[in-house]
Design brief:
Length: 80
Amino acid sequence: MPTTLTLKNIPDEIYTRLKTSAELHRRSINSEAIICLEAILAPGRFDAGERLRRARLLRSQIGATVQAGEIDVLKREGRQ
């Protein structure tokens, strides 16, 4: 069962940023706060933007590029 949490004395700047982020993502302030807490407290889960950022970083570190067709071939080979 979910628990209710009441936050007091939230700095105006933090509240404004949370509200702006919620509007940007079309979420309630409550839902946005939960997403933010999950991102910090459950770091094993990443949103799509974070996954993309990490993939691009890894690709730049490897220094090699793989084309979509090559990926398809490798996937098919792995299924045999």
